[in-house]
Amino acid sequence: MKKQEHEPPRIAMTLFRWFCQPEFREEIEGDLLERYDKNAQQDGFKRANRRFQKDVILLFRPSIVRNPFRSQHTDQPLGRKQGKRFAIIMGLTTAILLIPLVMMKFTKEVNWHALDFLVAGALLFGAGLSIDFVLRKISSRPKKALLVPAILLTLIFVWAELAIGIVESLIAAN
Amino acid sequence: MSQKSIGEFEEIILLIVAILNGKAYSVNIIEEIAERLDRKASLGAVQTVLKRLEHKGLLNSDFGDATKVRGGKRKRLYQITTEGQQALAKTRTQRNSLWEAIPNLSFKLI
Q1: A7 touches chain B (CB under 8 A)
Q2: What letters, b where the CB count within 10 A reaches 16 and e where it falls short, cover B12-31?
Q3: Which residues in chain A are contacts of B9 at CB distance < 8 A?
Q4: In 10 A of CB A130, how many CB atoms?
Q5: B47: chain A residues, CB-CB within 8 Å
């Protein structure tokens, strides 16, 4: 039991191992552990834990973070299937965003700014990734049948709220 | 003469690596900065600059020993390259020339 108390925070360590580029992992993990040991000897384990967490957060930099488009375990580029799914989500997002873009050419009623496209793109892409995650990681069919519509409803609700403010409209109606 | 320019923090790291003479790695670089300059530097900042300087060819590195304190992980030891030494010399010359260009009067007024 005592040995566990002397270990650096597990969540922070797991997070570091997840985001760090594999070629830097060994040396930086060693540095983190060495600093943790020194801090623990100087100021106790509570402070050492906090500093360890801070060290991990401050390591989250572009030069240290691994490429998200490469596999976590082998550091190889994502497989064909994963790449294809990613391309489908990107393609669908772009296709949906093209609708208001084209409509803006024909009618003045549709007037989107760059920020609107950005927010809508992020919403659609996020929803697409979430659905993809549910379909791949959850094996139970009833759960899938519940979660996918829930994601879609959330997307529709957030979209409608941003477009016309349905919560405000409901409050005003009451 | 090296054409690679370096920033203030890069210059500090290069100088500390030169001071530590073959024994420089991120943890003792942070300690040297704290001791000599009374300045805090995070592991992330130091690692980022070390990687950048290595990429620029101003530093080179090799794996050192693994110790128990480091959980059996090897440390990466850095050494300054000839290009790194040239970059430091160039920065020093530039700074000296700027200091020499300050008229005495401007400091008397402060």
Answers
A1: no
A2: bbbbbbbebeeebbbbbbbe
A3: none
A4: 17
A5: 24, 28, 31, 59, 61, 63-64
Containing A143, the helix (H) or strand (E) segment is: helix A141-164
Tokens read off for A170: 């409901």
Residues of A with Cβ-Cβ distance to B27 under 8 angstroms: 31, 34-35, 38
> How many whole angstroms from its chain centre is CA A27?
26
Nearest C-alpha in A relative to B52? A63
Which residues, other chains included, contact A64 with Cβ-Cβ below 8 Å and sequence gap of 6+? Answer: A19, A20, A21, A24, A28, B44, B47, B48, B51
pLDDT of residue A80: 62
Q: What is the pTM for the complete model shown?
A: 0.61
Q: Are A100 and A112 in contact (CB under 8 A)?
A: yes
Q: Report ipTM (2 d.p.).
A: 0.87
Contact: A35, B27; criterion CB under 8 Å: yes
Can you state the percent helix, strand and coil of chain B, rounding each to 5? 60, 15, 25
Model confidence at A6: pLDDT above 60: yes
- DSSP output for B8-21: HHHHHHHHHHHHHT
The confidence band for A108, taking pLDDT boundaries of 50, 70 and 90, is: confident
